[in-house]
Amino acid sequence: MKRRSFIAGLATTAVVATVSACGSSSSTTGGSSAPAAGAKGGTLYILSGTATEHWDPQRVYVGVNIEYGNRLFTRTLVSWSTPANDTEVTKIVPDLATDTGKVSEDGKTWTFTLKDGVKWEDGSDITAEDVKYGISRTYAVDVITGGPNYAISFIDIPKAADGTSSYKGPYAKTGQDLYDKAVTVSGKTITFKLNQAVMDFNNTVTMTAFAPFKAAKDLGDKSNYAIFSSGPYKLDGDWTAEKGGSFVRNDSWDPATDTIRKAYPDKIVWDESLTPETLYERLIADQGTDKNAITYDNAPTTALGNVVNAKGRSSIVASPYTRYLVPNFKSKVMSNDKARQALALATDRSAYITAVGGPQVAVATNSLINPNLPAFPKTPLPAGEKGDPAKAKELLQASGLTLPVKISVTYRKRDDYDKAFSAMKVSWDAAGFNTELVAIPAKTYYGTLQAPESASKYDVYWAGWGADYPSASTDIPPLFDSRINITAGGPGQDYGYFDNADFNAKIDATNKIADMAAREKAWGDLDVELTSKYYACIPLVDEQFVFVHGGNVQGAFVNGTYTGYYDPATVSIKS
Amino acid sequence: MFYYIVRRLASVVVMLVLITGTTYALFFASPLDPAKYTCGRNCTPSILEGNRKALGYDQPVYVQYGKFLAGLVAGRDYPDNAQLRTDHPEQIVHCPAPCLGYSPSQHRTINSMVGDAWPISISIAIGAFILWMIVGVGGGIIAALNRGRWPDRIIVGLALVGFSVPTFFIGLVLLTFVAIKWGALPIPRYVAFTDNPFEWAHNLVLPWITLACIFAASYVRLTRAYMIETMSEDYIRTAMSKGLGKWRIIFRHGLRAALTPIVTAAGLDLGGLLGGAIITESVFSLHGLGFTAVSSVTNMDLPVIVAMVMIVSAFIVFANLIVDITYGFIDPRVKLVA
Amino acid sequence: MAEVTMEEARDGAVAIVGRTPWQITRSRLRRDKVTMVSFGAAIFFIILAAIAPILTTLNVIDPYTPHSDLVGGLGSLPLGNLGGVSGSHWMGVEPGIGRDIFARVISGLTTSLTVAVCAALFSVALGTVIGIISGTAGGKVDWLLSRITEFVLSFPQTLMLIALSTIVIDLVKAALHVDRTPASMVFMIVVMGFFGWPNFARIIRGQVLSLREREFVEAARSLGAGRGRIYFKELLPHLWAPILVYATLIMPQNIATEAALGFLGVGIQAPTPSFGSILNDSVHYASADPMYFIFPGVTLFLVVLSFNLLGDGLRDALDPKADRQ
Prior knowledge:
- The structure holds 3 protein chains of 3 kinds.
- Chain A is an alpha+beta fold.
- Helix content of chain A is 24%, strand content 19%.
- Chain A is built from 16 helices and 21 strands.
- In chain B, strand 3 (102-103) and strand 4 (108-109) form a beta hairpin.
- Chain B is 71% helix and 3% strand.
- Chain B is an all-alpha fold.
- The radius of gyration of chain B is 25 Å and the shape is globular.
- Helices cover 71% and strands 1% of the residues of chain C.
- Chain C has a two-stranded antiparallel ribbon.
- Chain C starts with 5 loop residues before the first helix and ends in a 7-residue tail after the last helix.
- Classes of the chains: A alpha+beta, B mainly alpha, C mainly alpha.
- At the B-C interface, helix 1, helix 6, helix 7, helix 11 and helix 12 of B face helix 5, helix 6, helix 9 and helix 11 of C.
């Protein structure tokens, strides 16, 4: 069972996202200058309006924190290489390990060997035991909350009767022997026994949840912001939530052991006390220390008009996110097949695109799967970008419901979404619906969707999702497999309570397909069924990211494969 | 006099208890479940229960309030639940007296949040206060002395305009044009006075002007009205007929009488502002108490919301107290009746 | 009654007659051109706010229809100068959706004025009742009401509005089974009105205390008039001056408070137009499309200014001492 939690920030939603090795289709407007060797020195400013929830490696699940944590202070066994421009597809390279991992024939046993000379910030060696300990913390699910559960899903430890793992983590120590059998350490080598064949396990291991953790420094929940570094920088002072912190060089880090990180700046100041609007005003104005600044916040719609003033320092790249609508199968209206189809036909995606900033930042789509994934089925739009309210009205009249059909559409509150939905309401109403729009604040949005009482209140939900890594197996089942989502406590991530036995059977069949290309194609076919047969999902747009950086910053490139933000590993400050 | 002060202090304490109690009841006794706001996506019932216990929401409101009061006096430990503290000693956070609570979304005590935010609010309030008193009282005096003539008309006109423009509008115009488009002043960010006094002031000029605007306008009107009233009193005419110098009359007699209500108003206004100038801080993204209060509402961080309301109310109550006592000293006509 | 001219007085031919307070007021107002202009402006805005829904139904103005062809480029800014100003869009169009800003401002005026007027009426009504009771009852009742007044004044109005918005709006929605917009309006009226009564109650109380000793109250009491009759039939007519002035002056404060709250994202929210919700959006476009916040901002300023001027003028006209030099 793979359970994914998706933690949404206020301004951007970020999740580990990767683009497949089969090429990406992003575009840029003026990337940074050519990847010449940067100059050492200077202070890099990282500006943000999104508060970091966790720096504890086993609790980090937000793409930005995974990437930035990894590049600054949380080295992992293997990681992703750095790009030389905004579109380069990066690959997995060794980081703390000597190679990208050795896998057995059956795909169930993986082995990594640590390099020599890798040390913690206090000078002690990073050992394979540290890696084993770090991963074990994921199992302490009541203390170490928030992180991804791949360790629990993949490592070969039997489950208890209630479905949870028999190993309860290093604090309780229940089932420690089971863990010790599955993850073994011998000198500098660590071996993982998995419960299924995972041919891309080294892909999973790039997540910081698989980073080493020094047992002596473990304070449980209090380790949340207590960064203990294995990378080129260490925390100077304290980290304060919603304010940030500063980092200075970690003298114990040996550049000879690190092919990824260039560590040009002497100091890094991380300021997350801003709002996205303010920070983009400052970045575009490029005054004072803002010249040395980068950000990972996506430019808010309101700042887009000014981005043209930041010539040569902005990037527009593909983001891993797809935005879509989910009809609520438990509502009287949306359980009617023709009504769902009418809704899909009358959806005006061009209005949504205009509201969020134009075609450069949003591309209409009729697939849940991101275009950069091999599984992308290129489903054509049912009635063009504007939709067809007239045809939808005919369908609605044939559905047996009395017009106008009252529906309640809910979305996450944001100024541009208010406009997007007000505009889409016009087409829906023209098709015979009577649309009520409900904007729910970001903080409580997904919580509200997942509450059981919401099933009787709303008919259609907006949602956003991005694949965890380049397989559509991280798109379809987590969102539409009713068996792992719907419980008495709510719909899980299947917000619309889509529950179809045929569909579930096809999911199982697809999981068994051995050939990767054929498997991805099968996922694509399932995507088509969702959007064009069951109308259980109405995809809206694929969003693009827009980033701006300061004028003195060089070497800032978007690492599209590894979360999709500026990669700090190669950033330098022009003096 | 002494008994007056004692009685007033007693009533202040009663007032504060009533205020804190009402605030607590308003927020924690509502039908909405406060624990719901601590848990985001994929919230399982066990995480929700855990949060509820850790923050003490599973107890009746009066017990929570009692613990809060005890924490104010003697400090307290989080997580609130004694069993959780024994099971997970590594999670214990000690909040020293006066403990204002713990913010689940920020993972730190509200005391530390207030400690960071307070200098910013004070910096903004004091600078604006000095600015508006000089401009407001000065302008009011000039207007009163030139009553009916063009300096009066201009000042009154400007004051009316300043009084009618919304604070956030001024702030925004200044920020957009002076700071961003023309670059004449930096986009405000807080630099501590102890780090660099020049930069501290340099960055705060725009917030000071923004905040001072409406108060300056109001004090021009106030000062002008009181000055006019005082200057038309009989004893001023007596002083003039006695041949005392004009300026001496204005400052020693006229202004002195008018000053009392002005100082009263100033004290109350400043007291209210020490709790954070919400609009100004929001426009310029300065993280004072006002900004913290607003973002705590956006984040549905109930303990912080409650603490902010209490802090600002406490400032208002104390400002009232100080003004009342000072009034008794400086104005001999006032008999202090408790 | 005719006023006495210098010639007539010199001649001693016409008897000098005094004027009633109302006549003094009227003549002062007639001389005060500025106040008359602001009175006209205030009436104009009120009428505009009242007919806006009718105009919308008649399709004379259209605050809801999007025009995506009028915005474009990265960020979907209005095409054309000054934020898209044209013959059919006097204040331009909204970025991102192309709705007519003029129509939205007028509709916003309706919402904002409705909330401001109702809240003002609520404050005045509550304040008058409490002020009269406090002033006439005296003793323990007066003491208790004064303490309650002090208590309410200790809470910071803006902060309470912000803090309570989350909880109260949800409660109102559930209790009255309404959507968010009416719930927000009810919330603002009730809470703004509630924080407005204490200051007013004090003013009324002060007036009542001084009126209490006047002869007509004594006379009424000696004739055996009950309390209620004294309160409302005898006292109220003498209180109309402060009531009128206070109501007029608290209107612009309420309008400004609603706008400020909207700016912070609290209270009435998009897509319902109100000064607050319009400015909340336009604020972020300040550097890219300044006219989008200047047009509504200046309109807001003019509305607030006209009510302030009117209130000032009324206060000066009604103040018995204002003629003294």
